[in-house]
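Residues determine shape. We examine one folded chain.
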Amino acid sequence: NDPHHGGYQVTSLVTSLSSGFHGDVIAVEAARPWAVQLTNRLLWPVGIAVLDRDAVKVRFSTIAESPISPFHATINMRLSLVSRAMGRAYLAFCPAAERRLLLEMLVSSTDPEDGLAKNASRFSALLQTIRRQGFAERDPMVQPHSSGTIAVPIFSQNRVLATICMTYFTSAVSRSEAVKRFVGPLQATARNIEESV
């Protein structure tokens, strides 16, 4: 797969913006070849998600390209901003004003996965840790316990356009090994996608 292929698709999409395309379409199209290339290299599946009101929605996945995927299908799954890696990566890195607005929505959420948002000081400390380390992980208390996920943001100017993650079986890769092996390539892929956009 030629990772530069995405650039040409994006150019055609940019010209279509006035006819109803949104930024997430551009992000997903730009991400596609890079995500496939990353799965081809590291074998684990990669997902791309964009904000969907008070959650993120998976818009692209390389599950079909991965020989060892923990999941069968994730497209259009809505994932919590509070407990899921891709949601946390969005919330931690989005502009402060947007984060405040999202947190106000999350505090009144009835989804049990959003519960930690009600503990403002603890959740704020967690988001600071995520920003400091440069990546987010799924809450270990959330199912499935058989896999782990690491996610990083994809930026456009100072806002988060999308988030990208890699999911792995915890029986095959320890958490510390996953951080060592996947964070760098995920961040490099995110930069490549940003340039393609």
